[in-house]
Amino acid sequence: MRLILKAFTVILLMSLALPASAEKYRDTSAPMAVEGALDLNRYLGKWYEIARFPNRFERGCVGVTAEYSMRPDGDVRVLNTCREGALNGKVTIADGSARVEAPGRLSVTFVPWLPFARGDYWVLYVAPDYSLAVVGNPKGTTGWILARTRQISAKQRALAETILSNNGYDIKQLEDVLQK
């Protein structure tokens, strides 16, 4: 029993330390503007990850998608799919949930039994036709460009990068995500 408690304590302390050591990609003194008129029902569905700021939980992932749907309890189901290393690589799925905290501001967890393991997921921009979205968090440790299609135009990419820059992000650190 002591060994189990000790192992749990080590894991807990490591999980608390990881977010503090995460890379920061934005100037946190810059204000963040969220999509206050986000229509959650239109946001639901499948999104392709076009670009992201590097993070430990997506290391080596390509062909990444995120699929959002409503859960019976009113939260949003978050189903993230990663192909490890190559488009034909092993598929890994992370199943989580998101809670709306305020307009355009959600919190996401993939570990529901740890109440402090929620991450901010702020929608900074969504195109009027809901074909493109830009997401970030106030700490600047994550950020994504998402689209309903596997590729976007140069004009859409420039717009997404402008949104990130205007929210204090260093877009030079963005990495493209290989899609089919």
TrEMBL record:
> What is this protein for, i.e. what is its function?
Involved in the storage or transport of lipids necessary for membrane maintenance under stressful conditions. Displays a binding preference for lysophospholipids.
Signal peptide stretch: 1-22
Q: State its location(s).
A: Cell outer membrane
Q: Which gene encodes it?
A: blc
Upper classification of the organism: Bacteria, Pseudomonadati, Pseudomonadota, Alphaproteobacteria, Rhodobacterales
Q: Which InterPro entries match?
A: Calycin (IPR012674), Lipocalin_ApoD (IPR022271), Lipocalin_bac (IPR002446), Lipocalin_Blc-like_dom (IPR047202), Lipocalin_CS (IPR022272), Lipocln_cytosolic_FA-bd_dom (IPR000566)
Q: Which PANTHER family match?
A: APOLIPOPROTEIN D (PTHR10612:SF34)
GO molecular-function terms, A-Z: lipid binding
Q: Which Pfam families match?
A: Lipocalin_2 (PF08212)
- Lipocalin/cytosolic fatty-acid binding domain: residues covered: 38-177
Name of the protein described by the UniProt record: Outer membrane lipoprotein Blc
Keywords in alphabetical order: Cell outer membrane, Lipid-binding, Lipoprotein, Membrane, Signal
